[in-house]
Amino acid sequence: MKILLALLFALFTLHASQITVAVAANVSYALDDLKAAFSRKHPDIRLRTILGSSGKLTAQIRNGAPFQIFMSADMGFPESLYEQKIAITKPKVYARGILALFSPRPHDFSEGLSLLESPAIRRIAVANPNTAPYGKAAVEALKKSALYERVKPKIIFAESISQTVAYTMTAADIGMIAKSSLFSPKMRRFKEGRHWMTVDPSLYTPIDQGIVLLKNAKKNKACRIFYDFILSPEARAIFKKYGYILP
């Protein structure tokens, strides 16, 4: 009997130390550093992350996906989950994302977004504005610059912001991507002013990225530990390293 109770306790402890986090694709570039820092502090907690566009992750959460924490690329999706009582905490901003215009080939970025009208630019990668907040911000910036209708025939839409980077590297001439991706090890070789520029943040609604605990986190203390870590000074320093603005 004692052995059985010990086994049950061990199984419960193991389960309680596992957490599953749904993470917006733009965070993928900082994720390894975040996970490493968290694991150093809490080696007993096993962290599983699922990446995707915020809209698709929200749909999966509504359909019962067993996620416990949601790190969205905006506040709208987690706010809707909180209103529907699927999230058990109000969304808190953990970082503010920034748009960048990027090409693996050199261009004269002093032209700003007007560069997109160049005949040399035939395809522009943009994330789907219906599911990816960075795509929504990109379209907003193009419209505010009075460029959207003129460059719309060139746009190819990607499912997520990470897929937008992939399209920019392979199928498009240029892309509107998350600035955070440019600080990843594979992208650091690209130079500001030669391969990329920061899109003027006044051209789009601030990309405040929100985190919530979901219903599945209620009985798992490890979830609150990770949630608190993401809002901690240590995590904030990592986000800053990857080009985010801190709230």
CATH topological fold name of the largest domain: D-Maltodextrin-Binding Protein, domain 2
CATH class of the largest domain: Alpha Beta
Q: Could you give a short account of the major beta sheet?
A: 5 strands, mixed
- Kindly name the structural category: alpha/beta
Shape: globular
Q: Would you list the SSEs in sequence order as H and E? A: HEHEHEHEEEHHEHEEEHH
Put simply, the count of helices is 9
Q: Level of helix content?
A: 25-40%
How are strands sequenced across the largest beta sheet? 2-1-3-10-4
Name the CATH superfamily classification of the largest domain. Answer: Periplasmic binding protein-like II
**Overall mean confidence score, pLDDT:** 93
Task: Provide a quick synopsis of the model.
This protein is of the alpha/beta class and 247 residues long.
Please, could you describe this protein's structure?
By secondary structure, the chain is of the alpha/beta class. The protein has helices spanning 2-16, 28-41, 54-62, 76-83, 133-144, 148-151, 161-170, 221-230, 233-241; strands at residues 18-24, 46-52, 69-71, 92-97, 99-102, 124-127, 155-158, 174-178, 196-198, 207-213. The chain is 37% helix and 20% strand. It folds into two domains: 2-96 and 208-241, D-Maltodextrin-Binding Protein, domain 2 (3-Layer(aba) Sandwich), CATH 3.40.190.10; 98-203, D-Maltodextrin-Binding Protein, domain 2, CATH 3.40.190.
